[in-house]
Amino acid sequence: MLQAKGVAFERVDLVPVLSRVWLRMTGFPAGTVPALRLDGLRIQGSCAIARAVDSIYPEPPLFPSDPAVRVEVERIEAWGEGPFQQTTRRIALWTASRGGLDLRFVLVGARLQFRAPNGLALRLLGPLLRIDAALAGADEATVRTDLAALPGLLDQIDAWIEGGRLGADPPSAADYQLAGSIWLLLAFDDVAPLIEGRPAAELARRLVVPLPGSIPSGVLPTEWLPAGRLESREADSQLGA
Length: 241
Hints:
This protein is mostly helical. It has one domain (18-235). Helix content is 54%, strand content 3%. The chain has nine helices and two strands, in the order αββαααααααα. Strand 1 (35-38) and strand 2 form a beta hairpin. Helix 3 (67-96) packs across helix 5 (118-135), helix 3 (67-96) packs parallel to helix 7 and helix 7 (173-186) crosses helix 8 (199-207).
């Protein structure tokens, strides 16, 4: 959103769990991200950030001028910040917190606070990700349910795009809200085939500047993955043979 409005900014990546303490120590009222310092203000949460940025930098607008259309955009935005983002977050945290995974994938391109070296963060990241996963309720049963529900959630996003409620020019706050979560899922090779080829994938790639790094396939149990992913994995195996 900041890039679309031509606002210069510096991105700082915070270490999970420790970020909750750091944000409060630096004057933010809560321990959640994203968190933005803007013109002396401290704003947290993507929905609040969208409104603050739009009020200070009105062009291009993040919300339509038509009140009825704005209500629909805000409804989709709230769904993206709520059920869809939480589903995405649980899947991502459970996958990234598995023991034995090479977490250097997670830190590729990171810009850590205090310019801390990635090697130092790597020593802390495994235990901290497991704590963060537990705090988010990312247990096996929940994540398995989330994966089963994911195709239906993506179908809903595709329907909104095809119906013109998402994907307009200029993009709305709802577009950016959903695109961030979709892009995160695309970084997980086990999950990406569920999204590739969908309008949702095109939306994410159009709006979110890609960051390097990914989680390789084979982390999520095969039996947890919806049929489309299982068929894709089997096809890849046959091609490799």
